[in-house]
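Example 607.
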Amino acid sequence: MCGIVGILGTEAVAPQLLDALKRLEYRGYDSAGITTVNGGAFQRKRAEGKLRNLESALASGPLAGNAGIGHTRWATHGAPNVRNAHPHIAGRVAVVHNGIIENFQDLRNEILVAGGDLQSDTDTEVVAHLIDRKLSSGLSPKEAVAEVLPKLKGAFALALLFEGDEDLLIGARKGSPLAVGHGTGEMYLGSDAIALSPFTDRITYLEEGDWAVLTRSGVSIFDSQNKPVSRRESRSAVTAGLIDKGNYRHFMAKEIHEQPEVLGHTLSHYIDLGEKRIRIPAIEALDFKSLDRIVLSACGTAFYAGLVAKYWFEKYARLPVEIDIASEFRYRETPMSGRDCALFISQSGETADTLASLRYCKAQGAVIGAVVNVAESTIAREADVVFPTIAGPEIGVASTKAFTCQLTVLAALAVHAGLVRGHITVDEEAELVEALAAVPNFALSALKTEPAIEAMSQTLAKASNALYLGRGTNFPLALEGALKLKELSYIHAEGYAAGELKHGPIALIDETLPVFVIAPHDGIYEKTVSNMQEVAARGGRIVLLTDENGADKGSAAAETIILPAMHDLITPIVYALPVQLLAYHTAVFMGTDVDQPRNLAKSVTVE
Ligand code: M6R
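Predicted structure in complex with 5-amino-5-deoxy-1-O-phosphono-D-mannitol:
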């Protein structure tokens, strides 16, 4: 969603702000802008669409000034046009915002009644007006912000710049993330450490309700009660070098191809290969033996990783799992107890609904676990125990390597839970650890299917609809395949449990509908073969993703992608790669914006 950056620098900051906005592009946006303050006056450029438009505007009219704020906007209130692009200015105040001011309509009315002149349709502009009015009444910028913040309902990360003060930036955070960067004689604000990575690795994350007053000589942080607080400065591991496409055409391609390596890194964090044991750091905080239930919640692809984990926890650990998408869970008022573990899965660690669900469960007294990729994220910081995925920064909006790393962590947790709950033996644990250890090699084999999949994508690109089918742990992978295809190629796709076909979706089958069947040769393979026959009998065009043992029986398929045979535990992890490649190549063939598909944001920080 919206990306924020602010710089108090020692030279003209507009080029640095633009550079930082480029690193925030991955979050998804539809307009962008920069405001600097120079010689006591604001200078501003805004543009609709991609950053290249803002870059051209800056090339034809550069902005001077050593202090400034910048923004990539993902439209919520008001169309994505120049008028609604941030920064918004009222009098002596310029503001950029990530989040939603829920009471903006009341505040707009209040401003209009007081004779204010609103220039945009946004919720954000009211913040600049309210603060400017306080300045006009004689308050200092710091006093004005302290008075206005409590009036704002909803979620926000704000960066504020003041006309006439070139050594002042104020940031505030409630619900949406905001980080302070410490330089030498320079200070920064950013939505995340990635934005600030070339400038500094010294980062202080603001906590819920915090606001911060920055000058070139440092920062003062206040909590929601306006009491000065001290927040830890940490070294961010994110370096600008990690945010690079390398020789790949898209971040997504790079991230798909990184999987053998990052799956290896993630595994080495959770398994002891020599002893063939699962070893989970910090697991003492979570006693699987005493649990009655796991409650899982997440959004999008992370939710599908949780759906796979439900099969694993129930099968290997006999531990019931309740799972729900976070946007529903947060309002469902689920009863919980201290014998529940609530587990949240998130690449970004900032997804608003997942975070709200976490806070609900915390208030109910449940132990909170989090499987997260961004180690410094809010979800990671608020959980009792964190299970990191070691996927590295994921920049493509479509989640790929984070998904397979989430599955790997969840598989290790399920096997460990099975052992401590007495449902699997040490020998069985060793067999499952060996299966997991083989994942990076099988991932390499899966990548070898790419030429066949690329050829296949050209036919798929002509379809208007597609169906994905799977059973067991490969049913959630069917859902994930459909999501990947939809978000990247804009082809409508649905994922179904193969056994559910006869209960409705079979009516869709005709010769124009591609049907992707994900079916390793496991204990339920024959059942899926029957479902394939039902599709073939109605003229459906089947593409079968199976292994060398399943290929023979797949005669109903028009095309078959064959992977090596592998342990059942790991099929959803390895089979994810061809599924991702299919969506990727279809999107490339169709010419869509692969890394930043339309309307999507990487980190969904509003509900
Ligand atoms: O950062 P998170 O893992 O919490 O994000 C959850 C979803 O927004 C995310 O997985 C989304 O569905 C992706 N676009 C899927 O590719």
